[in-house]
Amino acid sequence: MTIPTVPSLVVPEAFSRWLESRGLIYQLLVDFYGRKPSLSLVAQWIRNRQLGVAAEMTEGGRELKRYLCSQEPSALPQICERETREYMRLMNERAASTIVAREAAELGREEEFCNVLSDVYASAGIVFKKCGGEADDHISIELEFMAVMHERMLYNSFSIRSAMELLEIQERFLEEHLLRWTPQFCERLNAATDSPLYLGLSHMLEEFLPQDLQMLRAWKTSLESSAATMA
């Protein structure tokens, strides 16, 4: 995982911490909702120095940090084995589970709904390489879309106008997709597990997404003000 360190845009101090952390949070959620919690994955995140700052943005993040970073190295293999079993129980669509980590399932839509998401991704010029054959409306793919758009907005935008266009895509995607179904998904997940890992991830997700939308809207207002001043 590569995270750039020098943004192309000049970012006001009020938004810098959020912008520096949000891409990391999306990537963490992508990794743990889209993959089994292997020893290498867990160790990678424990060693990530930026995790501490990003975790402070939500109570769920703090829960997750306390759980992951309080473990003795010798205990990690057993913990990862236990959490992998929980991942398979919770996230396996073929299992007799009340949880399906897909937008269409949560909202009672037809399977063809995936075509809507495919069109959204294509219009943004994104094609996902799906190692596990995930559907376009799977939570890990929707979150990865946000992670990719964040990186484009912050590190490949060289004008307020281009940043604004990428910001608005993310704003709409949160409003029209992620925030329409993840609250129900998190509610089901909270009721279905006592795993500190998956409870921390669920709490982090349900806190962070509304907060992220609020901050996107605030930064949009700031960019609009900057553009008006420069006009």
TrEMBL record:
It comes from the Bacteria. Keywords: Chaperone. Pfam families: Nitrate_red_del. InterPro entries: DMSO/NO3_reduct_chaperone, TorD-like_sf, TorD/DmsD_chaperones. This is Molecular chaperone TorD family protein. The keyword ATP-binding does not apply. PANTHER family: CHAPERONE PROTEIN YCDY (PTHR34227), DIMETHYL SULFOXIDE REDUCTASE CHAPERONE-RELATED (PTHR34227:SF1). The keyword Iron-sulfur does not apply.
